[in-house]
Amino acid sequence: MSRTQTQPASGEAHLGHVVFISAAAAMGGFLFGYDSAVINGAVTGIQKHFGVGNGTTAFVVAIALLGSAAGAVVAGRLADHLGRVRTMLLAAALFAISGIGSMFPPNLELLATWRVVGGVAIGIASVIAPTYIAEVAPTAYRGRLASFQQMAIVLGITVSQLANWALNQAAGGESTGHLGGIQAWQWMLGVETIPALVYGLMAMSIPESPRYLIADNREEQARKVLLEVEGEGVDLDARVAEIHAVLTSTHKPRLKDLLGGRFGLLPIVWVGIGASVFQQFVGINVIFYYSSFLWQSVGINESNSLLISLSTSIVNVIGTVIAMALVDRIGRKPLALAGSVGMAAALGTAAWAFSFRQGTGDSATLDDTYATVALVAAHVFVFCFAFSWGVVVWVLLGEMFPNRIRALALSVAASAQWIANWAITVSFPDLADWNLSATYVIYAVFALLSIPFVAFCIKETKGRALEEMG
């Protein structure tokens, strides 16, 4: 353990450099958040422009998540074949292409196609950033640096909601209003091309992961990167030998490497899948994908609903900052447990308030008192998610798997997360029409079930070197 104990000092000496490297990798998370949530402001405009109902709209919103699942599946193989950095460049290109295509869709089918392309980029980004950050971060700072991924995601969500609201206001309070010859919702979808280009430029300025370089038989380059990220006090021979000892397989990771145990996959892989599914089944992305639709369904106008979406995004950022400050101090499990309890209470309160909704569709209303309770509960829910599951799951997925299967196992877990996200996203409009209160009861039940899952299935990873995992 003496080797691990010497890392904090050397990590401090080079922390600024590692922070930049981690922030550059996490730029993919920013685009992940932006692309995922920007559709929230465009939903009403898409419905009006193409003349479609809730079911078709849900399909267009959710189909990107199937692309994300596919992207997450291939990301592990891409990362192990192309390297971490070149995989980031591929994701940046796909984000840019998707943004331009979504901005000028001649029909709904092509819009859905470009959404899938963006979804593939999201899936790749969701895997490659935590993998890369975990592999370059000194052990003492790994939790906080891995948290950059979630911070970037929530910043991307917030910027998308700010952009949506500003474009909506500039177009006269209507997402179908015109700006520069095209409608506001088209601008909302197209603006992501700018951060996509920034992501590509930043990815070109960072070094390749030392663990990938060693696996690819480029030991000298790996030594240079280890010196960069861990400082001159690092024993390079010991570090390289340590990584070599873990990467003992003579083949690239394959799906069969994840097999084992009574239920097909290795137990640790099932835990990663479970964490990913619970993160989505509490319904967090209903807030970020459908909040304008949600609040309009209880009588709030489009402009104000977008403003509410912005406020919940700001709360999301605040909660994430708190998580980043605490994740390496008090650990992953305590944060997740506290968040689960808070989310269950907030979702239950929201379900109670929504039970007083009167009417359906565009004529639905909610008494001011209950509307206020629902709004407060939604913000509390987002805050509890942000300081716990939002950060903790991505930190865990980046560090909980053994080195030799990390990228592949993470891609499987992330793929499960996107499939769960798709299930929640595609079902919400119809469930809301059926019974909005009961829908939130379902989310509250999953929040309650996440408590024993964390207590009995999650192992604390705080302070453990990646080479100790498995």
From TrEMBL:
Where does the sequence pass through the membrane? 12-34, 54-75, 87-106, 112-133, 263-290, 306-327, 334-354, 374-396, 408-428, 440-458
Q: What is its main location?
A: membrane
- The source's domain of life comes to Bacteria
Ordered alphabetically, the record's keywords are: Membrane, Transmembrane, Transmembrane helix, Transport
- Per the record's keyword annotation, is Transport included, yes or no? yes
- Residues annotated as coiled-coil are none
Where in or outside the cell is it found? Cell membrane
Occurrences of domain Major facilitator superfamily (MFS) profile (ranges):
21-462
Provide the topology term for how it sits in the membrane: Multi-pass membrane protein
Q: Name one Pfam family in it.
A: Sugar_tr
Instruction: Report whether Membrane shows up as a keyword of the record.
Output: yes
Which PROSITE patterns does this entry report, sorted A to Z? MFS, SUGAR_TRANSPORT_1, SUGAR_TRANSPORT_2
Q: Which family does it belong to?
A: Belongs to the major facilitator superfamily. Sugar transporter (TC 2.A.1.1) family.
* Annotated NCBIfam families: SP (TIGR00879)
The molecule here is called: Sugar porter family MFS transporter
What organism, scientifically named, is this protein from? Answer: Kitasatospora purpeofusca
